[in-house]
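Quick one: structure tokens for this chain, please?
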Amino acid sequence: MMEPWRVAATCAVLALATYTFFHLSPWHGVLLTGMGSDGAAELALMKERGAITIAQDKESSVVHGIPGEAIKLGAAMYVPAPEQIAQLLKALVENKAAAG
């Protein structure tokens, strides 16, 4: 029997799991402030499959649980504050558009 906590998956886990299952590309995974570890393992899988992965830095997080877990797992390629996350995503999209 499946553990009850596994039945009620969060939106973050479902979205990130969808990416890892279907290997949708290109995709960027971002985990922001929050309690727990929702999505951290899935972000690691995304990184393994070639996605750009981002976790919010500790200094700007209200609760650093979720992004902190991702960082501990080595899942985050970038660890900026939210303002820099927006700039980073914009640059990634613009670079992709310029490349082709």
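The chain has a mean pLDDT of 81.
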